[in-house]
Fold each of these.
Amino acid sequence: MKKLITLTLLVLFTFTSNVSANEWDKIRIGVEGAYPPFSSIEKDGTLKGFDIDIARALCEEIGAECVLVPQDWDGIIPALLARKYDAIIASMSITEERKKKVAFSEKYYNTPAKFARKKGSGIIISKAGMKGKTVGVQRATIHDNFITAEFGDSVNIKRYGTQDEAYLDAIAGRIDLLLADSIAMDEGFLKTDKGKGWEFVGPGYSDPKYFGVGAGIAVRKNERELAKLFSLAIKVIRANGVYHRINGKYFAFDVY
């Protein structure tokens, strides 16, 4: 059955592309490794998470060897453009600003952003309610762009290289609010022992102006055919149950 699915993908690609999927016998994929439950690095150096499993499943569907390359978020697009790897699978939202630099596949998941506050703080999500408060956010992300544009004149913004660093400062009492992907923050912090003193507050945010249209796979602009191949592979794993199996490993609902 697996061979039949892969053959179907190759046939589809042949009819929609000038390039054969067989040209990609190895795909190097940039991953962050610091964004649980989407990606993290175990003590033994093993990569795990939803993004990691999706990357491997898509490579398998394409028939390519999957080489995962950990990369700090700040440099993840520059490293792609410098040809350190061929694609990025790191919960990267498809935004108009990023599309100026890279090409994207179709989305492989889409979840809203939310704020979290310390329990008992009583902070309200409004310019008045947040005035003078310190908000922790991962640097150079859609969440950074949103908080800067919408609340930058009311709050103090503290930016971090990784989401885990923001969580550590939250635990230490150095920030009043967190802003991040709701699922990443719920699974990676609020549901853990370290985050038990924190809670969600306010609505979810998904305005495409800031948050794009979901997380996609980024490639160099001159390799749009690879993005198209990933899009087809996403459709196949959504149809054959592989996506559902991976999704169920990490989440109680469909993040697509």
Amino acid sequence: MNIIFRSFCLFLLTILLASFYQVLHNTLTKDEKKEGWILLFDGKTTEGWHIFQKPKTLNPQWKVVNEELTLTNKGGGDLVTDEEFENFELSLEWKISEKGNSGIFFNVSEKPEFTATWQTGPEMQILDDAGHPDGKFPKHTAGANYDLSIPLVKSVRATGDWNHVRIICNQGKVTYYLNGQITAKYELWSPEWDALVLASKFKDMSEYGQKRKGKIALQDHGDPVWFRNIKIRRL
């Protein structure tokens, strides 16, 4: 009887500890609030986001599932923030489906002459490096300054695992972090930046990476992708 009782108590203790240490997603700590962080995704709604060039519109392929902002199928279109940002630190987590492709953009313009987020916004690549064909091209792998430079380190986790991103853009100086490691570092509007663009697929896009501020965008590349803990602070 004592063994049964002890086992039952251990079971209850395990449940209580698991509940106590449960990670709360899509929230801000007191310190984060003091530092000026704001949530771009509350884990319940898509408030604050819309489809590129379609204000107040959200296609059904984008859903909130299990407190995660989820592209369930192709055809959703790229999501952009309602607000523009200039100097900022962005933090979020993502995971990608097998053989999946997506991306995070910033300084995106929605002026009528632009038909896609990638025409203006620099990108941090999201990719299943092992499964997607783009994984064969170093400048297209996860964490890359897409098509402009190879990641400084390879720090992406296994497909299906969550990856943590930080993008800092301050006075044109940009740093990408993937899972705590710097994967790209560059300065917008500099001669070095212009040279990178001229050597890339964007060489004929005069407005690529030239905007001083703009929207944050999450890409629909046709593959399921999940985001959570999306937060930003202005610098």
Amino acid sequence: MLLAVDVGNTNIMIGVFEQKEVKVCWRLATNWNSTEDELGIVVKNLLHHSGISPREISAVVISSVVPPLMYSIERMAEKYFSVKPLVVGPDLEIGLKILLDNPREIGADRVVNALAGYTLYGGPLIIVDFGTATTFCAISAEGEYLGGAIAPGIGISVEALFEKAAKLPRVELIRPPKTIGKNTISSLQSGIIYGFVGQVDGIVRRMAKEFPDPPLVVATGGFALLIARESEVIDRVNPLLTLEGLHIIYQKHQKKL
């Protein structure tokens, strides 16, 4: 079995693949100070809870946008699963042409998403990832990574609002009954939800005008389903896109060996 680990600034996504299928997956809070032992014990307990023996894990693939955690994650793979992990980085050839001024500056998660999106859906394609930042990635019909846009994520934007406005309560992020709120809670929900829907739809429409043909729009990340329900431009939602991308990269790497 393959253990796929995507380390984000807010969450760590972990998935176990058996053949081509995701057998089980988990989302953990990212703690930049976690040691290899803390991570290893947590992952082993999750595996045990799902009826999977650590001995069944034969390979580990990792992508990360949190450099301070890379040592701990790699050591966890070696210490608790006795495998040297495959790490997605600028020097790993995955067959994706990146048309940026400096291809090495792109985040590993965006590369993984782009490859997964193009492999699963073809192109042209726009991928919207609702993570710590909301990222928009444009992929051509030929599978070229064209570039994109980065905006503050929903979670950190909402937290900033609550921290700076003492009288505003924290609210559950759900669709409000109406756009015109009749109280503080529904007004906040309306502004947050429909505000980000408007941001996504506006940016995607502008990006789509720069494609020769209409792109498919795929959403992923923690808030993808919430925003996609109200969006007029999102065509598909794939919460596991990044994990599936890691699986695809591992399979490509194995074929080259």
Amino acid sequence: MTRTTGASPALAQQDPWGGRPPHDCAGVDEVGRGCLFGPVLAAAVVLTAEAAASLAAAGLTDSKKLSPRRRAALVPLIRQLATAWGIGQASAVEIDRFGIRCATESAMLRALQRLPVAPALLIVDGVLPLRSWPGKQVTLIAGDSRCGAIAAASVLAKEERDALIRRLALRFPGYGLERHAGYGTVLHRQALQLLGTTPLHRCSFLGSILPATGPQESPHQA
């Protein structure tokens, strides 16, 4: 496994593929790793060099640096220009049972399994390799700012998860999920102390928020 480091020039000028044809490689990224509620989602994207350049010209970069409107506008363009893309997720139950790293890896694998062809090279955002991936891979620090395929994956994963959480906010009112997407904001923590947990909260993440015995069960538990 090779770990790539260095400066972060413009996405369109990057060559994170190590000299391989970009369309033989896939970028993978996740979103929701640090949330208290809901699944972790991952996306895998394959782009040609031309598609990566076109998306960079359209403003593609790390999803965290984009406004919600810009992210939403990029989604149909990514789906149109990508050679292939896939989305996978791992539930709060899996996160509690196996830990966040294993659950994140499961989400990534499920996204990759939705690609029609396994990539010759997998480029993983961050420093941690996908341990169960049988093929070649590299990790790329700040990959969502340095690799078009990872940036595209970060946008798809972010938009897919946000849309899911907005739907779940209607099912579980009172937690402000539509405002914080399940992250541990003051509002979310206060709601947990008042209402208790839902079946989609990550109980293993709540030790510093709720007492060991837990509050009264939320009405959503019924």
